[in-house]
Amino acid sequence: MFRTHTCGELRLSDVNKQVTLAGWVQRSRKMGGMTFIDLRDRYGITQLVFNEEVNAELCEQANKLGREFVIQIKGTVNERFNKNANIPTGDIEIIVSELNILNTSATPPFTIEDNTDGGDDIRMKYRYLDLRRNAVRSNLELRHKMTIEVRKYLDQLGFLEVETPILIGSTPEGARDFVVPSRMNPGQFYALPQSPQTLKQLLMVSGFDRYFQIAKCFRDEDLRADRQPEFTQIDCEMSFVEQDDIINTFEGMAKHLFKTMRGIELTEPFQRMTWADAMKYYGSDKPDLRFGMPFVELMDVMKGHGFSVFDNATYIGGICAEGAATYTRKQLDALTEFVKKPQIGAKGMVYARIEADGTVKSSVDKFYSQEVLQQMKEAFGAKPGDLILILSGDDVMKTRKQLNELRLEVGSQLGLRDKNKFACLWVVDFPMFEWSEEEGRLMAMHHPFTHPKNEDIPLLDTDPAAVRADAYDMVINGVEVGGGSIRIHDSQLQARMFEILGFTPEKAQEQFGFLMNAFKFGAPPHGGLAYGLDRWVSLFAGLDSIRDCIAFPKNNSGRDVMLDAPAALDPSQLDELNLVVDIKE
Amino acid sequence: MFRTHTCGELRLSDVNKQVTLAGWVQRSRKMGGMTFIDLRDRYGITQLVFNEEVNAELCEQANKLGREFVIQIKGTVNERFNKNANIPTGDIEIIVSELNILNTSATPPFTIEDNTDGGDDIRMKYRYLDLRRNAVRSNLELRHKMTIEVRKYLDQLGFLEVETPILIGSTPEGARDFVVPSRMNPGQFYALPQSPQTLKQLLMVSGFDRYFQIAKCFRDEDLRADRQPEFTQIDCEMSFVEQDDIINTFEGMAKHLFKTMRGIELTEPFQRMTWADAMKYYGSDKPDLRFGMPFVELMDVMKGHGFSVFDNATYIGGICAEGAATYTRKQLDALTEFVKKPQIGAKGMVYARIEADGTVKSSVDKFYSQEVLQQMKEAFGAKPGDLILILSGDDVMKTRKQLNELRLEVGSQLGLRDKNKFACLWVVDFPMFEWSEEEGRLMAMHHPFTHPKNEDIPLLDTDPAAVRADAYDMVINGVEVGGGSIRIHDSQLQARMFEILGFTPEKAQEQFGFLMNAFKFGAPPHGGLAYGLDRWVSLFAGLDSIRDCIAFPKNNSGRDVMLDAPAALDPSQLDELNLVVDIKE
Question: Where does L-aspartate bind (chains A, B) (predicted)?
């Protein structure tokens, strides 16, 4: 070993010990014939001292060390005169007697400090230097700790971790697959799994009973801030269970994680909300419940009073921001601009302040009597000092989504979205299908293996769009951190489902035959859930993007700029794979 | 929940309890008005009893259940009259009061028993049924338990598990890469990692200090019995260490695994053998040391006595099989045939028995005096009753490898390769390079990042082929279960290494620039090791192939016959990827 201790280990009780340390030069400073160096490793920082008067040559050497040089030193632990209460090793320093340069360093392109001067691009290119920063490394330490706790919780409940293959077959339902040409099977391709969904269902058919895997998943989608082409799921499946069994098991896991990762004891059961209510009251299937401000629908109250915008609307709804009547005209105009942005798409916004005397002062006073405005106030249960914001439109769902954006924005402005506060929620009773304009058919909202609610099965023949599923998402602070469903285990019901989704029996057999065949040999009732590991870590670490909890993430073009991947292949590699690149304009 | 207990849980102390069980019908039999059903789940088997006289209708229903039907029953726990001492639940049975068929089953294509009647192909196609068999599932349970123990051991030593990406860049040095076309970067490809080698080295540059990952690795190689296109490594790396630190850390892990997985306490340090000795005494870099029979070289003794085969040889060597003088002529002829098989390639074999009176009776008696034969006997330290087997050839390494095959075969025949006995060994001091006839240049024996032994660095300029590396393999029972090396952390030495390997500076920069650049910013001394998870599990489970410890393995053509993957893509998928398939004859 190059060291007797790490740089985070020594304390007052170690004074006078002879030690050997190794690490990186964080910074150095000269002060009255003394040279002080902060030596850094993963575990902490220890101050080294060189005294010109005691050993001029050694001090001279120390003065030549650059930032990020890798050194090994021997010396004696000494009590510090000026103690540093900010670091655990701040009571001691090392009087160095021997210095050994293990490696030099060029000047890093940005400073290795918590607040670095490096921009995003340069830090991605030199990711291995960015990872030296405590702020980044600590996210990965948290990720490590979280997977340890996940496995501890699941192992103890009898879940078996089973590795499923990465090279599987391509399944067309769902997102776009990444594919891998097979050299041994010319012209044929593997696909990388979007999730181990069908494989974990096969494990249930195999009687594995309780399965999990911390599994890499792949989707070839256009990327957004919180998406990566490869991401990691805590993927779980159980047999002989109903929806409540799964919800209870994984709510237990969530509570275990809150306790072990953040020291937060959540004793109450998590709130549950139907998808229909989530849409009605929050305009989102992942409402942020750190704050209230549920939607209030105003068609009864506000329609038919001569304000043509509302009179022509099929939806009028609003939110009440407590104590926000102090919003200035300028702030309100900015909010109006916000909802009119193309990506939100509202036409305008109506606002109303509740005055100290209880009267309502609104932007549409000329159309409404104070009596109607008072009815509106009642509908919100608004008090003096509150601010009411109203949107309307001719598409109920679209207008609700706009109102959702407004609610989140106002919540942020009012400081109601504290990263250290957590609101956990199960959204349940998702619709089984959603209509795809693009495909001109019903699509599975979760996936084609989701079990419809038993009481809705008759609707499959009469009104499939109204069928609800035994599907559930866990939402924390407006982020979908996981979701799952009870699966169909009956091959006839599965066949009926494919029929409704527009598959011919032949096509269903071709694409999912292996699963439908498996179901003929005694499939147990089963269901499961997948948690997004990256999202959980981001949540616990207070990050805005999942990128910062991934060691080597890709950028928005799917590139690893550090590795400079992807890249062109050697022509002989393409040849061996029987492939020709043919880039169309 | 569909059950109150599992099928492996109930005991005498549960008698008279009302229980609900769910599982698969393993078998059923009728006996004097009673029907007995073995109900199976992952946890065990419980006997169900239906009495025709008590409930004729229920018994009738039970008689109609087929093998592998999934059922749920309610009933009362009863003490068995004929107890079954072979299973933990053998003291009790369930008097069934209610039966609920959860799913039917077609007749399985093979029996779901420990000794199945299904051949390899049919079991691979219906892998989900094969996985129902205890014998197969228990391998995966062992695998799960092993990864739990690996993580426990490493976490406690401060190793951080870091996920590295699966979509990386292609590196030409080494085996063939699997590649993944990028839709967002037309004409460019990712590669799947053959191992996280360079990424874990970058994590050391990042100061992660101790890294591990249970990592999927991919090699597009022609397959053999113990190879799969995707396999799993326990991949580890440490900073500020020397070879002994790594060997001690991972020998500790091996001992921890032997203890927790097999209940075997290994107290002695593992034997260490140089690569040169392994080749000299066993003709293999992974000798099976469950038995002795080291090679004895006989050039001095046997050459120059008129036996032209030996007189023309550059290598003559043999093994001494203790007590095997009883081998018949037929057995010896079969051994001769064995070594002459094309894949081994020896020309012939000489044998000699040590008679009871100490004289030597050999197949080449006419060329050798008893005096010379006695010298030979001395060389082996052979005793009466022993059998000496000798090979010769004009290529030292080739002949040693043939003798290795012979040694292993004789060891097997003599029952010296007991699967429940374990011989652990470190092979050290591997050569840095090996000559590639195909490429006409030196190749890195491990990989180009391996550190040469310090004392051999001067030889890099004068005799590179003689340079030994700080590289080590762990070998158990003749299987290489892991290996690693100290890495180069000096960018100049790394550049020199690429030079010797025939890379121009430009080519080295193009392919490994990211790593060489990283090394300019203060790389610490580091090294690591990777254990083959599949091989370890096979070893502990006593399997002949790694295939049986993998949930969904591929066959020798790289096909998953259950999923029928790989397969042709939809033309629109190829189009989106800017690819054309062009199969050459």
Answer: 173, 219, 446, 487
